[in-house]
């Protein structure tokens, strides 16, 4: 560690005062204040540095947590998502979908998927309110992130999350500077990468010394494989007011706009080993409609494939449709004020806005009953009958060719539009110098609107509006209207997700402050309100949005439409409520430079919106209520013990953990471009899971100009139950999947198909991981960094019959200080190479039950083979180089 860095560290400790320790990774202002005591602020250096080159800090909490700082973040790929920068910490495995982070990625933390890991930004929860997804491509510009942390296996006592059973990732935005100035960072790189970041600080102004900044960034580059571009625009601002004596208030905003083309994630293991790399089509032109002819866009579109060939078919795989637009924004406040000498109030209010989709393509007949409620139109059209159909003046001419006989492609994005209001407040009472009580309340109120309003494609085969008929800022006439004035849509529902949570925790210090005990409990009360405005196919969550009249009402209450034997459940509303009491206990003992700790915590994940919309009504001779999905909340119990060592040259930590997971659900990416859930996460329940392992990390300052960091993770995550996979068999009659006893099977003859998963490893979970980083500053101007991550092989199926290989990825960075060269303050040039060795490995795995044909292990059902399906995945980015020029003035 250089003398310059030691001086910076000491200056930071002096400047930030009592907030320095807690600012490391606090989930909220209340947790920040609760973790901080005056005697934790070390200026003399008697307990060593808080950080060594930003890769690891001496954590102030008695549980597993890892934190990186801006010093390491700024050495990573410019514009990169913070999740990639955190990829060095133990327990976390993040696979990035492209070299710059704009396409998102896949999180695994101690074997938990990203939907079960909380993600927070200045205390604001970012996981989607409906399905808990984390959108890693929409995170804050890295230049503005002061610190980022990963809490492995648990959350904070006041965490306002209904789903973070696997841990918490949180990052803190930087404060405005005391001095007026401008920062400019520009980058160019592989795949026509271009990025510019600009920050302007006001410095202290006004009678109270208020500070503020405003920033903007723009990024644009090509996909590393396949056609399409990725574009990102972001604005940020922050206003900060120091109120003295540790009191402060801040107000900030973030706006992020992404316009991304998807990568093709349909490679299977055979193709991977053979070197075949499928991608999306370059162009796709719909056929020109001909009056009186049955045009079919399912077979007659002109396609230019990724490999350059010309084919006829459907535009379902066209890159112009496989897109991921999003507009997100938030306003967030942080307020901390000492009411009395021993009483502090913190308040964190927030508002978030999201509109996003993953594209969508649907082939629709022009006489579809959702466009024209005339049952005479159900007959298949032919060229001979097309004129007759015109005489009847039925259907809707979607392609403008003068007839209504065609099969036409529509752009049908599944939009999610969220407005989310939140507040988290704490009252902290120092009963004595060594005993503290904190009471917290949080409210998270999410309005979740999900629509699929169709639009026509233009003549080039592109959607005229990326949000389709939703188009909240534009012309509603983009929608496709039926003959009765209603518009065609693939889904239409509105949900509320409401969390009210109370928490209480006690922190006490004993034996000359060497022993710290923290006992907390949180009580979440969660409510989901569902409003399904469309019909739902019985036994599924598949919507059928129509205004056509019901043809038949069945005795059980289900309905059917003319020419359609499917049973549907009419639009409905339903409320679900969940609550629990969750303990959180930590104990730590300091032996000078050494610290021992232990923790126990319980977490809950309540069911997701999409799962709850799955409904069923069994056959009956009388009307009966709708049976809603009986999915239960997931519960985890996490135990861990650990050790930390801190000296002037070494920071080290190690922990062993055991996790019991009840009713576990695995989320996996749907890579099928023809699926309605394409590029969204779908769930399957894998029952009880037990995970155990250990993690360790060490940072060592060998000399003033050399430091090393290394971490290792071992994880054994094992399924505890065999799985019922939903298929049924009738041994007596030899009938598979009987819908009712009328097929010749009585109910007691039907038996579930069971596959053997007990004792198998959890999918996408490497048993071993290891990371390494070396920093070397050979001169005052030049600094070099080299880092590597090795990830063990990963199973793609629950029965462990397919596995993808292990991989190692190496990154390099070099920075040269130009201050003395050009006399410009803080000017530098930086060179980054990611994936230096050009390693290729699978990412974004679409995991499943089995890849090969397997046998049913249910002894009552005989031996009934279950066909397998090879799993698909995407590919990581190749070697990528970026050159960056930065300065401040």
Task: Summarize the structure in words.
The protein has about 900 residues and is mainly beta. It has two domains: about 5-265 and about 320-360 and about 415-535 and about 570-720 and about 755-795 and about 805-840 and about 870-889, Beta Barrel (Maltoporin, Chain A); about 280-320 and about 365-405, no CATH class. The chain has eight helices and 52 strands. It has a 22-stranded antiparallel beta barrel. A five-stranded mixed β-sheet has the order 1-7-8-5-6. A five-stranded antiparallel β-sheet has the order 28-27-31-30-29, with no helix packed on it. Residues about 1-25, about 35-50, about 675-680 and about 725-750 have low confidence and may be disordered.
Enumerate the spans where pLDDT stays under 50 for 5 or more consecutive residues: 1-26, 37-49, 676-682, 727-750
State the helix count. 8
Please, what is the oligomeric state?
single chain
**Can you tell me the number of structural domains?**
2
Full CATH superfamily name of the largest domain: TonB-dependent receptor, beta-barrel domain
The counted number of beta strands is 52
Q: Main sheet, how many strands, which sense, barrel?
A: 22 strands, antiparallel, barrel
- Compute the average pLDDT: 86
**Portion in beta strands:** over 45%
DSSP helix fraction: under 10%
- Based on the structure given, which CATH architecture of the largest domain is correct? Beta Barrel
CATH fold title of the largest domain: Maltoporin, Chain A
> End-to-end span in angstroms?
26 Å
* CATH top level label of the largest domain: Mainly Beta
Class from helix and strand fractions: mainly beta
Rg over C-alpha atoms, rounded to the nearest angstrom: 29 Å
Shape: globular
């Amino acid at each position: 560690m250089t003398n310059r860095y030691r001086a910076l560290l000491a200056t930071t400790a002096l400047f930030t005062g009592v907030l320095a320790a807690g600012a490391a990774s606090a989930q909220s202002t209340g947790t920040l204040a609760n973790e901080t005591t005056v005697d934790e602020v070390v200026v003399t250096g008697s307990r060593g540095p808080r950080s060594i080159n930003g890769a690891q800090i001496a954590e102030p909490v008695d549980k597993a947590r890892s934190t990186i700082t801006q010093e390491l973040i700024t050495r990573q790929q410019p514009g990169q998502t913070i999740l990639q920068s955190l990829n060095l910490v133990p327990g976390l495995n993040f696979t990035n979908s492209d070299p710059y982070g704009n396409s998102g990625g896949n999180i695994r933390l101690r074997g938990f998927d990203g939907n079960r890991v909380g993600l927070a930004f200045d205390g604001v929860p970012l996981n989607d309110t409906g399905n808990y997804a984390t959108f890693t491509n929409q995170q804050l510009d890295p230049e503005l992130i002061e610190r980022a942390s990963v809490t492995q296996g648990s959350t904070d006592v006041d965490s306002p999350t209904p789903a973070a059973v696997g841990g918490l990732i949180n990052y803190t935005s930087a404060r405005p500077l005391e001095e007026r100035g401008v920062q400019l960072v520009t980058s160019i790189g592989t795949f026509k990468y271009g990025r510019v970041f600009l920050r302007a600080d006001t410095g202290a102004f006004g009678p109270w010394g208020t500070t503020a900044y405003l920033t903007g960034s723009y990024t644009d580059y090509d996909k590393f494989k396949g056609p399409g571009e990725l574009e990102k625009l972001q604005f940020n601002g922050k206003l900060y007011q120091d109120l003295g004596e540790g009191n402060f208030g801040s107000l900030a905003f973030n706006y992020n706009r992404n316009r991304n083309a998807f990568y093709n994630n349909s490679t299977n293991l055979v193709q991977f080993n053979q070197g075949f790399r499928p991608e999306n089509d370059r162009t796709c032109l719909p056929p020109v409609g001909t009056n009186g002819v049955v045009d079919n866009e399912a077979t007659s579109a002109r396609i230019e494939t990724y490999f350059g060939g010309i084919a006829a078919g459907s535009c379902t795989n066209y890159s112009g449709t496989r897109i991921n637009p999003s507009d997100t924004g938030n306003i967030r406040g942080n307020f901390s004020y000492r009411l009395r000498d021993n009483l502090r109030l913190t308040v964190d209010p927030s508002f978030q806005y999201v509109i996003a989709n993953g594209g969508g393509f649907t082939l629709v007949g022009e006489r579809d009953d959702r466009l024209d409620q005339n049952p005479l139109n159900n007959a298949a059209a032919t060229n001979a009958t097309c004129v007759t159909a015109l005489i009847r003046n039925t259907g809707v001419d979607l392609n403008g060719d003068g007839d209504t006989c065609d099969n036409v492609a529509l752009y049908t994005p599944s939009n999610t539009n969220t407005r989310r209001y939140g507040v988290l407040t704490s009252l902290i009472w120092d009963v004595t110098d060594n005993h503290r009580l904190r009471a917290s309340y949080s409210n998270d109120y999410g309005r979740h609107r999900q629509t699929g309003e169709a639009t026509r494609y233009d003549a080039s085969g592109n959607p005229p509006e990326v949000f389709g008929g939703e188009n909240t800022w534009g012309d509603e006439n983009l929608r496709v209207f039926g003959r009765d004035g209603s518009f065609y849509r693939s889904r239409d529902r509105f949900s509320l997700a409401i969390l009210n949570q109370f928490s209480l925790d006690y922190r006490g210090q004993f034996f000359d402050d060497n022993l710290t005990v923290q006992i907390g409990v949180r009580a979440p009360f969660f409510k989901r309100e569902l409003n399904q405005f469309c019909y739902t196919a019985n036994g599924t969550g598949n919507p059928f949005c129509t205004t056509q009249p019901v043809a038949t009402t069945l005795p059980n209450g289900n309905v059917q439409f003319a020419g359609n034997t499917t049973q549907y459940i009419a639009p409905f509303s339903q409320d679900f409520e969940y609550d629990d009491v969750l303990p959180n206990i930590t104990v730590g003992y300091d032996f000078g430079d050494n610290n021992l700790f232990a923790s126990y915590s319980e977490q809950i994940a309540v069911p997701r919106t999409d799962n709850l919309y799955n409904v069923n009504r069994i056959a009956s001779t009388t009307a009966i209520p709708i049976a809603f999905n009986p999915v239960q909340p997931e519960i985890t119990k996490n135990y861990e013990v650990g050790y930390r060592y801190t000296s002037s040259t070494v920071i080290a930590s190690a922990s062993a953990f055991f996790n019991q997971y009840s009713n576990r659900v695995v989320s996996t990416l749907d890579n099928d471009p023809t699926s309605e859930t394409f590029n969204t996460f779908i769930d399957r329940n894998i029952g009880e899971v037990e995970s155990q392992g250990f993690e360790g990390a060490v940072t060592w300052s060998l000399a003033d100009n050399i430091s090393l960091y290394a971490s290792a993770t071992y994880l054994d995550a094992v399924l505890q139950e065999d799985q019922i996979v939903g298929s049924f068999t009738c041994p007596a009659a030899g009938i598979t999947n009987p819908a009712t006893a009328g097929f010749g099977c009585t109910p007691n003859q039907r038996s579930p198909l069971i596959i053997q998963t007990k004792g198998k490893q959890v999918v996408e979970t490497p048993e071993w991981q290891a990371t390494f980083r070396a920093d070397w500053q050979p001169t005052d101007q030049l600094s070099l960094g080299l880092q590597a991550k090795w990830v063990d092989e990963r199973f793609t199926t629950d029965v462990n019959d397919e596995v993808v290989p292990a991989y190692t990825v190496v990154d390099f960075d070099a920075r040269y200080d130009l201050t003395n060269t050009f006399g410009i303050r803080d000017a530098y040039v930086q060179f980054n190479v990611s994936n230096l060795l050009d390693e290729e490995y699978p990412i974004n795995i679409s995991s499943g039950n089995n890849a090969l044909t397997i046998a049913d292990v249910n002894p009552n059902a005989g031996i009934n083979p279950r066909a397998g399906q090879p799993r698909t995945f995407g590919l990581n980015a190749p070697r990528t180089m970026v050159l960056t020029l930065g300065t401040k003035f």
